[in-house]
């Protein structure tokens, strides 16, 4: 083949590859909705496969759901320390559910040492940010925070409040 034919052959191959990617990628891409649907249907192994790449890429809802799966042993071995790791990523990424879950873990010592300052911080943020239909979680977060206040000294309360304000200033609009 001469150079013109090689150039045309390469161009045709590149065009075919590009066209194939445009056609197939939408069918190969897993969305958060797919993972949530699999989880809701109780297909936890499939949900894990769909959610893990999204969680690794920083998707806060997927990170929260990974935490739930590890905490309860759904589709994975029950591992509360791993659950806390995922909840923390979700919380820091702005997930109100992750903030609630992390605060409850810190308050109860599930998967981590009890951390009253961290519990107060994340429960306070969750109380503000949970959706209106999540009143049960908001109420439990508020009750837990109230109990924490009876066990914390004033300097720890001030530290926790400062952390809430710092977080709110930095991420409150997200």
Unreliable stretches (pLDDT < 50, length at least 5) are: 14-28
Assembly status: single chain
> How many strand units?
0
Straight-line distance between termini: 58 Å
Can you tell me the overall shape?
A: globular
- Helix percentage range: over 70%
| Order of helical and strand elements | HHHHHHHHH
Description:
The chain is an all-alpha fold and 174 residues long. The chain folds into three domains: 1-28; 31-86, no CATH class; 94-174, no CATH class. It has helices at 3-28, 32-40, 44-56, 60-72, 80-92, 96-108, 116-129, 135-151, 154-171. α2 runs antiparallel to α3, α6 runs antiparallel to α7 (116-129) and α6 (96-108) packs parallel to α8 (135-151). It is globular, with a radius of gyration of 22 Å. The model is unreliable at 14-28 (pLDDT under 50).
């Amino acid at each position: 083949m001469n150079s013109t034919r090689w150039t045309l052959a390469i161009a045709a191959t590149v065009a075919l590859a590009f066209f194939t990617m445009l056609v197939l990628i939408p069918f190969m891409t897993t969305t958060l909705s797919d993972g949530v649907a699999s989880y809701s249907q109780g297909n936890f192994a499939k949900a894990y496969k769909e959610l893990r790449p999204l969680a690794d890429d920083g998707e806060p809802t997927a990170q929260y759901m990974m935490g739930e799966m590890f905490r309860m042993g759904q589709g994975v071995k029950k591992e509360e320390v791993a659950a806390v790791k995922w909840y923390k990523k979700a919380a820091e990424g702005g997930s109100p559910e992750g903030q609630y879950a992390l605060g409850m873990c810190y308050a109860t010592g599930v998967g981590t040492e009890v951390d009253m300052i961290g519990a107060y911080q994340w429960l306070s943020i969750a109380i503000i940010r949970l959706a209106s239909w999540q009143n049960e979680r908001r109420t439990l977060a508020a009750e837990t925070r109230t109990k924490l206040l009876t066990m914390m000294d004033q300097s720890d309360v001030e530290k926790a409040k400062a952390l809430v304000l710092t977080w709110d200033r930095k991420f409150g609009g997200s």
